[in-house]
Write a structure and sequence with these properties.
This protein is an alpha/beta fold and 259 residues long. It has nine helices and ten strands. It has helices spanning 52-59, 82-87, 104-114, 119-132, 149-163, 179-195, 207-213, 231-236, 241-258, and strands at 12-19, 29-36, 41-45, 67-72, 75-76, 90-92, 167-171, 199-204, 216-221, 224-229. The strands form two sheets. Strands 6-7-8-3-9-10 form a six-stranded mixed beta sheet, sandwiched between helices. It has a four-stranded antiparallel beta sheet with strand order 2-1-4-5. A hairpin with a 2-residue loop joins β4 (67-72) and β5 (75-76). Bound molecules: adenosine-5'-diphosphate (ADP) and magnesium ion. Adenosine-5'-diphosphate binds at residues 21, 28, 46, 48-54. The site of adenosine-5'-diphosphate has 10 residues, from α1.
């Protein structure tokens, strides 16, 4: 039984969260309830328009929910100051926007500057963060346009980690990258989740990305969370036709491999 104060149930917990953009006529997301435990990676998987981004953004209050409650680190987030809440959560959007006139190190240090961290410490942290995403120190003083797309994306992930070291929200962050770079970054996310004990909520429409990253996967369909569970649970005990059909293909592939 989930408590009402949210103190014992994960870094993030949503209870009955819903969002209507049209005054309650239709809901982009409805009745969404789940939690992300410390150090866990949860993937929200669903097709375009299924409500994934809406749910994600209720957590850092880029969107205010119409219904339900979001707890962040045990606190009702609606009672927190939105700016402070946002500063404490790393967020990587689909198109990572580095500031074009700031160097890589300055981009990385920006969330720290906002938090009032001194100059030398900012520089040291920025260099450390480059290491987290497997980039070398010599990139620190380059401008964003002097990096490849994959490197820019890595800087975006590092900046998000610096901003909110224990909680990271990622919204289809690797969609625009080539397959090889995407796989390298997926591995990086898995490693960060494991080594730094970051709690990650990752949104994607890509089933195989979800299987690669998720300790648990939540399937979104028409604004509803159809089912959430370990990949094996979704494959072997789908609770709806939609989930069963979605996981039929990877399930067959795994069965072939296991023969
Ligand atoms: P996803 O991220 O899964 O593609 P979204 O959460 O972005 O889905 O969108 C869910 C639904 O809400 C869609 O029908 C979308 O058109 C609608 N929607 C999203 N943002 C807005 C908005 N700011 N105003 C009105 N409708 C929106
Ligand atoms: Mg989206």
């Amino acid at each position: 039984m989930p408590g009402t104060d949210g103190s014992d149930n994960g870094v993030v917990r949503l209870e009955g969260v819903g969002k209507s953009y049209d005054g309650g006529r239709t809901f982009a997301a409805r009745d969404v309830t789940f939690a992300v435990a410390r150090g866990e990676t949860v993937v929200l998987l669903g097709s375009s328009g299924s409500g994934k981004s809406t749910v994600l953004k209720t957590i850092n209050r880029l969107i205010e929910p119409t219904e339900g409650v979001v707890f962040v680190r045990g606190e009702n987030s609606s009672a927190m100051r939105a700016v402070e809440l946002r500063r404490s959560i790393g967020y990587v959007a689909q198109e990572v926007a580095l500031f074009p006139f700031l160097s890589v190190a300055e981009n990385l240090a920006l969330p720290l500057r906002v938090q009032g961290v001194g100059k030398q410490e900012r520089r040291a942290k920025a260099l450390e963060a480059l290491g987290w995403v497997n980039l070398t120190d010599d990139l620190a003083d380059r401008m964003p346009f002097q990096l490849s797309g994959g490197q820019q994306q890595r800087v975006g992930v590092a900046r998000a980690l610096l901003a909110g070291a224990d909680l990271l929200l990622m919204d289809e962050p690797f969609g625009a990258l080539d397959a090889v770079t995407r796989e390298a970054l997926q591995d990086e996310v898995v490693r960060l989740g494991e080594e730094k004990e970051v709690s990650i909520l990752f949104v994607t429409h890509d089933l195989f990305e979800a299987l690669r990253l998720g300790d648990r996967i939540g399937v979104m369909h028409q604004g509803r969370l159809e089912q959430i569970g370990k990949p094996s649970e979704l494959m072997n005990r789908p609770s709806t036709d939609f989930v069963r059909e979605l996981f039929e293909k990877p399930k067959r592939q795994l069965e072939v491999l296991e023969q």
